[in-house]
Structure formats: C-alpha cells, structure tokens
Design brief:
Blueprint lengths: L1 E6 L13 H9 L3 E6 L7 H10 L3 E5 L14 H8 L4 E10 L7 H18 L3 E6 L2 H11 L5 E3 L6 H9 L3 E4 L9 H9 L5 E3 L21 H12 L3 H15 L6
Parallel strand pairs: 1-2, 2-3, 3-4, 4-5, 5-6, 6-7, 7-8
C-alpha cells in the first residue's frame, strides 16, 4: 500500500474525473494508494476536511491555520485549535509553520500562530505538519523550543540537508513531493538519498506541484505513485521497499490513522 501523506482533496481540479471526487480517489486506489491525509489550512475548511474524512474510510485529516492564511483569518487561537482537534478523524495539527518568501511582513504573526499550534500539539499529543519556506532558523528555533515528544513532519521539503538533519535530530520526519522530480532539484534529490528509511514520507500536496511527467497539469493523489517511483530510483531501492517503509513510517507518525 502507498499513502498520500499530504493532499488537499477539497481543492482538487476534478475536470479529468467528470467532476467526481469519488472517481479521483478510485483512480488513486487503482494504483495502490490505500490512504489519504487531507490537510486543513484555515478555520473555514476545517469542517470540510472533517466531513471528507467521515465520508471515506481511507481518508483522514488534519486541522490548522496555514501561515499564508493568517492575513485573512482571525481564528488562530488555542481554544479554537483544541476544539477543532477534538475529532476522531483528525490525526494531526496543521498545516502550520513559517513562510517568509511570500509574506515576510507577517513573520511575527506567523511565529505566534506557529507557537499556538505547537502548544496544541503538546496538549493533545497529536503530531504537527509543518510548512517552512525561507524561514530555516526561526522554524528550527521554535521546534527546539517546543521540544515535542511526538514531533511531526516537515512536509513538501525543499530545504537543504543541514536543515533536514537538524529536524531529524529532533525526531521529525521528512516528506517529499513531486518537486523531487523537477530538473533543477538536484540538491533536493541529495536530501532524498540521505534521509533515513524510517523517517521518509511521500506526498503529492495536490492539487499543487504535479510530478514529472505531469508537471504543469493539476496534481492529484494518484500521482503519488510517480513521486514514490522517482524516490525509489533516487535512493537505489525497489519500489516495493519504498512503499513498505513510507507506509510504516506514516502509521508510526500518525497512529490514530490506523483502521
């Protein structure tokens, strides 16, 4: 079984599937994808991802406030998070984190929100799903400050090996997306080669970042198959081994997503 550990099912372009999410999920299932983690990004879509997780037995979800959603969202507070997290299908917190590439002026607000999510993680014991871009030092500093025993995952990782190693040393997992197939991503492929087999996850981040040979088209969960195939080749291991390891890693990190 292969698991798409990070997808936005409520945002998929379903044109190729006659407008049907069922068809899109069935296309992924037909290619060996056995579970989907549907990610929350703001207060408005928290009920949506929960409903999808309730509707499909192989879909689980997270809730949180994406750092780039803070400018239009006032719901990033601990009380809201704890209430939103109190649901049997919510297995993780986020995505949360820091993104100084698009909104450097929001750094202080992003840090406050990130700390809030990390506090909720400590109180609930649920792992965090972390988005980080051009905020390496602050991301690592806040993770060290939180010192979470259950840690979490740096999703759609695009940073260098030094950051990956620092996160791994704190118990975090590294998740790789279709970016690893891009022509100019050799530095990321080097990270992919070095991440320990028991700390690697695979994702699509669909509908974004479709892997080669689908680059430039809407991404969807079935394309996690291409991401996994590329990673297996990069790491010099069989696809079966990569499937087995990343699935075991997912269940170890997200123990509530076992059914």
């Amino acid at each position: 079984m292969l698991i798409d550990s990070h997808c936005h099912l409520d945002r998929l372009d379903l044109t190729a599937h006659d407008g049907s999410l069922d068809n899109a999920l069935n296309a992924a299932r037909a290619r060996g994808v056995g579970k989907f983690l549907c990610i929350g990004v703001d207060a408005a879509n928290a009920p949506v991802v929960k409903q999808l997780a309730e509707q499909y037995e192989d879909v689980w979800c997270s809730v949180g406030i994406h750092p780039l959603d803070l400018s239009r969202n006032e719901a990033t507070d601990l009380a809201w998070l704890l209430q939103a997290l109190d649901h049997s299908r919510v297995v993780a917190i986020g995505e949360t984190g820091l993104d100084y590439h698009y909104q450097p002026e929001m750094a202080e607000a992003q840090q406050a929100s990130f700390r809030c999510h990390l506090q909720a993680a400590r109180q609930t014991g649920k792992p965090v799903i972390i988005h980080t871009r051009e905020a390496r030092a602050d991301t690592l500093e806040l993770l060290r400050e939180a010192d979470l025993p259950q840690a979490g995952v740096l999703h759609c990782f695009t940073e260098d090996w030094d950051m990956a190693r620092a996160a791994l040393d704190m118990g975090y997992y590294i998740s790789l997306s279709g970016i690893v197939t891009f022509r100019n991503a050799e530095a990321l492929r080097e990270v992919a080669r070095r991440v320990p087999a028991d700390r690697l996850l695979v994702e699509t981040d669909s509908p974004y970042l479709a892997p080669v040979p689908h680059r430039g088209k809407p991404n969807e969960p079935q394309f996690v198959h291409e991401v996994a195939a590329a990673l297996a080749q990069i790491r010099g291991e069989s696809e079966e081994t990569l499937w087995e390891n990343t699935t075991a890693n997912f269940h170890r990190l997200f123990p509530l997503a076992i059914n």
